Amino acid sequence: MTDTPPPDDMLRRIFAMQSDLNDYVFSKNQLKDMAGKPLTMEAIFSAVEQGALKVNDLPNTWLSNYSRALREEVQELDEELLWKWWSKDEIDLQNIRVELIDILHFLVSALICAGLTPEKVYDIYRQKHAVNLTRQDQGYSRETKTEDDNRGIG
To answer: Could you report the per-residue pLDDT of 116-150, keeping only the tens digit for each?
Structure first.
């Protein structure tokens, strides 16, 4: 028996695993929500649904935390990459892959904190993908760039 979910369920499973991991980390570190209850990803997600979007509310606080973590992980990835084109060194692909998965961990956490589900991520990705293709077909450049085509995404 394999542990691999069907392809259409993989993103949903990644979201669930990440939420469980975050809840474990929150519990292990005794983090609390705004009401003093144990912090959970569900509490952050619910805060988004309730419109708690101010600077000190859970979504902003945790989006900020995960944004910082993402930047740090990208920096770690950059440190693994070689830039000296004359070098005879080789990249450590195994560690690069691990760094990329660390980035995915924090990205999925941020997606959840922004109130996104796997289905919504797919839907928004599909819409943004279409915008990007149209931009390429229309000769996208700084002179032609506007955010008008992104405003309908959601």
So the answer is: 999 999 999 999 999 999 999 998 898 888 889 89
Q: Please answer whether residues 124 and 154 qualify as being in contact, where contact means their C-beta atoms are separated by less than 8 angstroms.
A: yes
Q: What confidence tens digit (pLDDT) does each residue in 2-43 have? A: 577 777 799 999 999 999 999 999 999 999 999 999 999 999
The count of other CB atoms within 10 Å of the CB of residue 58 is 22
**In the predicted structure, residue 1 carries a pLDDT above the cut 70:** no
- pTM of this structure: 0.90
Between the alpha carbon of residue 128 and those of residues 6, 31, 123, 135, 152, the distances in Å are 25, 35, 9, 10, 10
CB atoms within 10 A of CB 6: 7
Spatial CB neighbours of 114, under 8 Å, sequence gap ≥ 6 = 48, 59, 63
If DSSP states are collapsed to H, E and C, what string results for the chain?
Answer: CCCCCCHHHHHHHHHHHHHHHHHHHHHHCCCECCCCCECCHHHHHHHHHCCCCCCCCHHHHHHHHHHHHHHHHHHHHHHHCCCCCCCCCCCCHHHHHHHHHHHHHHHHHHHHHCCCCHHHHHHHHHHHHHHHHHHHHCCCCCCCCCCHHHCCCC
